[in-house]
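Self-study notes.
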Amino acid sequence: MSDNTPESNQDSDTSSETKSFSEKYSDVMGKVNETLGNVDWTQMGKYGKAAGIIAVVVIAQIIIKVVIDTINFFPILPGLLELLGVIVVGQWSWQNLRTSENREAVLDKVQNLKKTYLG
């Protein structure tokens, strides 16, 4: 019989695996550092702003969804909000679309907005 026990064989296998992992880790970190060294860091301001805007939009959407889900949780509240919306649209329509002069003023505002934003 040999003096090597199965436990000593496992220890030698583990140390070789650890060594290869540490070598792989150092190779990967060397490549990452080399890649980061080649980046033009003066342009990162633009990317940071874009990432910040995207993050703010995502967070705002999550907050809006939570608020809407909370409102929908109460059984009578969505119906009341729909009724409020109908009332507001009716009131705006009565004030702005009742006479031909008011309708023309609304059309002029819409045309000015189209020229301003669409060119």
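Second protein, same conventions, sequence then structure:
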Amino acid sequence: MINRLFSFGRRDFASLSEQEILALAISSEEDDARIYKAYADGLRDDFPASAKVFDEMAEEENEHRRRLIEQHKTRFGDTIPLIRREHVRGYYERKPDWLVRPLGIEKVRDMAEQMENQAHRFYVEAAKRTGDADTRKLLGDLAQAEKGHESLARRLGTKHTPDDVKEEEAATEHKQFVLTYVQPGLAGLMDGSVSTLAPIFAAAFATQDTWQTFLVGLSASVGAGISMGFTEAAHDDGVISGRGSPIKRGLASGIMTAIGGLGHALPYLIPHFWTATSIAALVVLIELWAITWIQNRYMDTPFLRAAFQVVLGGSLVLAAGVLIGNA
């Protein structure tokens, strides 16, 4: 959540001039060429054929960069503005997976396809914001060059059939659902469930007043839901990242954040303190299990690792709340 707040200092993609769009494209191609080269180096010993493919892809990205620089020189001269993907709100990010060794071939293939899809969306949107015919043509050509699901699979030796295309379309639809609803909803559920543990249980053990504890939990849950919802909607308009409508993502994040906190706040409507606390603790366990299941089901996180991370984090926050409340 803190990282998202920093995105308010970034530029909106719609505010970029045509020169800045070209500069952003140049820096992005430079970064992607380096990443493909790193993939090639990491795969060379165990997967030499695939490494050669990524070497070629790095060269293609360098050729794209060269064409973009020539277009910039023709229109705007030799001085290229310094603008990178981290300067633009909602622009796709590159996680440093290429630094991890050894590289898994399936992981690399998935990341490369994702990179090509993101670059394709960028060039499509960039072309819409360009009035110069030559620049628009160049950006359109690069958009087609980056549209590489089929081409990448073919180059890596995978044969496509009509059934494969149907499966790919279904996978794309599923991925969009995850990006628009599951990912922000999961982030909200985790934030609401874990971050409210300390204030709710601290208030419970400090006052042993169930009504006051409920009011603390209600205010913390609703406040966190509003904050997470607005932050999710504001930090990324979804145009370049492909994460979908900011309103849908904001609602998913905000609602799930509030639900995550209210789950263990509602038991304190029960007047008896220890009964309410016991039920609240049980609800916390259910919430943590639900988060683990969602991570495993939709985010492909190994179940035991997800359980360890969620339970450890939740336990530490819960313990902090109890200790503070008893201080």
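Instructor comment on the second fold: DSSP finds twelve helices and no strands in the chain.
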